[in-house]
Amino acid sequence: MSAGVNSEEIRRVVDVAKAIVGDLPRLPAERVDWSTGTDVLKVVAALQQFGECVRYLNNRRAKGTVMNIKSEADVQDAIYLMLRPWVHDLVWENPTDKIGGRYTIKDFLSKQLKVVVEGKYVRDRNHGKNISAELHDDIENYRHYPDCETLVFFIYDPDTFIADVPGLQKHIETKRTYDGKQLTVYCVVKP
Q1: Residue range(s) defining the domain that contains residue 161
Q2: Lowest CB count within 10 Å: 19, 41, 176, 177, which one?
């Protein structure tokens, strides 16, 4: 053991690392085969750890890096940092084809996984009250997009403005079929 490092400090660092990693699937030594649908669940599992990752950065001893999440762009930055090591073809802010004279900007896309990840930040009580309509608008746009078989909504609601999170998730999370094309939707909400 080197001078200045004691076993108690090492134990504390290991405990913090275990708290952050939690139940995340372990990364294999080689690249993940992202072609199987079950790997989308790894993306969802990683997003479930969002709060732990932000909490870790904001409570570090050195206070070097702090994630001050105050906007949707901040949420998207954190999502990208969390997912990019796992999803090697993840691209951000990729517009869809024009549909009805307008197009949608996808927050993140993996063509290999055929997944779109949309990051949301609940700004105020009114936004929390109307988030369901916003999600349904996004679903309507993405159902036409050929590289989207799975749509994952990540909603950061730091002030808990969404009154009924389980109800929202039950309403949004489902497999849908449009003109023979299946779209699976997940909804992760974190305070």
Answers
A1: 7-190
A2: 177
